[in-house]
Amino acid sequence: MKFKIAILGSGNLAWHLAPSLENAGHTITEIYSRDIRNAEKLAERVYVAEVKDDLDFSESEAEIYILAVSDSAISELADQIILPEESILVHTSGSVPLNILGYSSAAYTGIFYPLQTFSKIRKVDFEEVPFLLESEDEPSLHKLKKLAKSLSPLQYVVKSKDRLALHVAAVFAGNFTNHMLLKAEEIMARQGLEFEMLKPLIIESISKSLEIGAKKAQTGPALREDLSTLDLHYNFLGYNEQLAEIYRMVSQDIMDSHL
Amino acid sequence: MKFKIAILGSGNLAWHLAPSLENAGHTITEIYSRDIRNAEKLAERVYVAEVKDDLDFSESEAEIYILAVSDSAISELADQIILPEESILVHTSGSVPLNILGYSSAAYTGIFYPLQTFSKIRKVDFEEVPFLLESEDEPSLHKLKKLAKSLSPLQYVVKSKDRLALHVAAVFAGNFTNHMLLKAEEIMARQGLEFEMLKPLIIESISKSLEIGAKKAQTGPALREDLSTLDLHYNFLGYNEQLAEIYRMVSQDIMDSHL
Question: Where in the sequence is the signal peptide annotated (chains A, B) (predicted)?
Fold first, then answer.
């Protein structure tokens, strides 16, 4: 099942999604961006009939319209977009409920949420991207499943409430782990130490955690309730109050989680 | 260069270090633990002449004495241990300074700190363990380098002050990332969702971070300063005030770190 698809947005997700959809045999009919230059940049990555910065899609041949924009832009775009009959409008957000698309001119609405981290400068293997799907219309859900399946073997049908929980968990699992690595990098750099030294520890920590579960995998001064080391570390971080406070709170939460 | 080595301690590190030292051709002369039963358990993993729960090593044939005990026990053991002449006493801690061994009966002192996470239930590949070494005595430092080299290609000579910074960074990079994964697991479990769904995201987040650096790798609602999603997530976590507060603080720190 091959689809004609319009992409709205030109950010990190759209950047990778458009070429992958094309590679999977679908046709990108239009790329929309508020700033036409961004749409043009993305259009260099795929064959596309039209780039545009207006929301009149009444003449579009697409069946599926993918809103790959920031959460805060979804509602406005959904309200303003002019769609042909029988079209399916989906958004790609982890946190925005399905019903936000309810006032749009779309015949059907749905969610097409790729649970992955996307940066323009790094290629993404869509085979490793779980797609979280939702629609109240069975035929539309079926089509979204087919579309997801053309990109990845991992698809899940998830209700909006569960998707929010999942997105919160994903922020901890992805963004927050990455932020802890940034803080580690900064602490090392400040002392003139090579971050490289920490890489084996990072790789082993994550591998162990995924294999035996994070609870059993935990080690370190907070788990041991080694208060004098915790104090030493807290004082060491005195040059950055906010960082010291994060150290204190996360350490406290480790202790509380392992009672 | 093969050494005769006494191990003091029977925790996660000693558990893996003793057999690895033996495999590398060294001889474990004694295993000490405050609780002799723990020493006996570890002695089942290696050939060892003596297990003991007293600190009189005056008759020991070992040259190197490794304190693989919790940070808080180091000072007391170092003060009480009775060592033969010309012996080298080292501890394995990331945070305790070298001079804490200064009042011991050891002729020479040093640090032999493996920068890795150790759990008894998971095998560790010592080839992937960086050893951080320190000694004020050149011949002792040379021996510690040889000893580390027999286990791993990764050795660094690091002063106590830098080692503390490194240990703080290691807590962020290892323990805290693992704790973020635990929180993600718990959020998923509470909603009846499979943690499995998050694994591709976790693997990609860490791989990306290690490859392009955590700063460039960051994505998510905090980076986008998407305040309405942050609010939504914060409110979702209302069932656990401490967790919500961690969400708020780390998100704030992500925003502040990417100004």
Answer: none
